[in-house]
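4.2 Preliminary Data

To establish feasibility before requesting continued support, the project team ran the inverse folding procedure on a target of 438 residues. The structure was first converted into the token representation described in Section 3, and no sequence information of any kind was made available to the design step. The complete token record follows.
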């Protein structure tokens, strides 16, 4: 229904230019005037945005690309200034609408409200993009590379979204922002329940940063979550770990506060990687060294000096036994296991890949049903996994092979072949007796 002419005067409609130049009826001009004005405002906003982008934004990009610093290139990559260019049309709407739509006060009010909301959204959008730029810059900075920057940025993102949402609601409903803050104060319990994981993650991130518990790039072992590998990222809610089989394990951030885990960073920062492995030797193969064995051991460069020194020491000690030196129980003598232990120690010391500034030794462990373990304890200079395993394998290849030269036997569980040989040996005499009886 077309409103009466008296109502036109009440809302200050002035479509005279359509009536004067095109002889349009005033009632019809009322409806034609509005889309023309809106279309004109849209054209003005588009031109303002285009000029801002082509002139101001492009000029800023050219200046930043010529500088030697790199962080401004990230601003261009994240299109920060492209986002800010949308604010100009929104401000034009706010300042121009009261004049252009003076005859339409209700629509003018809605347009200003919408433009204000758009400005708030653009500001939030820009701040979030800027925080992403900040995160990217700080993540590669030597001073912050080991800090959970992503977690702090995510907390700031939540805060920006929260403030932006409050301001937008305030504009939409015409209420003070403090009105909504007061209403949310009554919902604290619900908010704590909703954001429980976020709050726990943030507290955990702070503790992890303050106490330097975990960094990006650390080797972490967490058996409870079947995680063993390098930390890829630390954010507000989760920590990503790439396992050695290239799978990805995602662990809640607060789990690093409540559960135990192993961080191998100490090994990575130290002078070596530990080698701790034992050889199980049969106790029945242990014996005292006779003259023939000692003469053979003197041919080994690693223990020649040791044998000579020990022979002189033992000979001097045995002179006090007054004729009882022929009894091995009464006299001192070397053992094959003892000589082999010294050989293993000297072999480790002579290895150029072993860090002799760190603890290194060969020790005997408590005997078990598998014999007596002889443990090699030292640190490899090389910490890279593949080379480390090669060094460790080379050491034990040699020691396991040379045990026979000391008349020592390495323990092995009996196999099916051993049992068959035992059975065959038991039946062999019976076959021989049967042959003679025939």
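Position-by-position output of the design step:
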């Amino acid at each position: 229904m077309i409103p009466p002419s008296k109502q036109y005067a009440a809302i200050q409609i002035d479509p005279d230019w359509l009536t004067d130049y095109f002889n349009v009826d005033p009632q019809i001009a009322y409806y034609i005037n509005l889309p023309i004005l809106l279309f004109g405002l849209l054209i003005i906003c588009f031109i303002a945005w285009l000029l801002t982008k082509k002139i101001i934004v492009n000029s800023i990009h050219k200046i930043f690309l010529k500088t030697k610093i790199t962080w401004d290139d990230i601003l261009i990559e994240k299109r920060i200034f492209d986002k800010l260019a949308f604010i100009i049309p929104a401000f034009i709407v706010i300042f121009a609408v009261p004049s252009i739509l003076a005859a339409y006060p209700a629509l003018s009010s809605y347009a200003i409200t919408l433009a204000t909301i758009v400005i708030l959204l653009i500001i939030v959008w820009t701040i979030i993009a800027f925080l992403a730029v900040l995160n990217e810059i700080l993540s590669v900075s030597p001073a912050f590379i080991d800090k959970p920057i992503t977690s702090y940025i995510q907390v700031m993102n939540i805060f920006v979204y929260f403030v932006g949402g409050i301001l937008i609601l305030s504009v939409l409903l015409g209420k003070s922002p403090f009105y909504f803050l007061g209403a949310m104060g009554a919902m604290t319990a619900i908010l704590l329940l909703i954001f429980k994981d976020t709050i726990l993650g943030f507290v955990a991130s702070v503790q992890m940063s303050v106490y330097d518990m975990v960094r990006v790039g650390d080797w972490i072992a967490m058996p409870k979550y079947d995680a063993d590998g390098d930390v890829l990222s630390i954010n507000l809610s989760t920590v990503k770990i790439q396992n050695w089989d290239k799978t990805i394990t995602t662990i809640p951030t607060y789990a690093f506060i409540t559960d135990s885990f192993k961080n191998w960073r100490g090994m990575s920062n130290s002078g070596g990687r530990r080698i701790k492995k034992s050889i199980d030797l049969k106790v029945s193969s242990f014996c005292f060294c006779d003259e023939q064995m000692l003469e053979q051991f003197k041919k080994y460069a690693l223990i020649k000096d040791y044998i000579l020194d020990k022979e002189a020491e033992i000979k001097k000690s045995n002179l006090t036994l007054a004729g009882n030196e022929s009894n091995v129980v009464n006299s001192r003598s070397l053992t094959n296991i003892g000589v082999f232990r010294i050989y293993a120690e000297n072999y480790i010391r002579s290895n150029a890949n072993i860090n002799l500034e760190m603890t290194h030794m060969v020790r005997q462990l408590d005997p078990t049903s598998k014999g007596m373990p002889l443990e090699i304890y030292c640190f490899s200079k090389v910490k890279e996994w593949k080379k480390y395993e090669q060094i460790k394998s080379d050491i034990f290849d040699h020691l396991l092979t040379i045990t026979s030269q000391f008349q020592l036997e390495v323990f092995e569980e009996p196999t099916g072949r051993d049992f068959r040989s035992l059975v065959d040996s038991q039946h062999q005499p019976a076959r021989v007796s049967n042959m003679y009886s025939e």
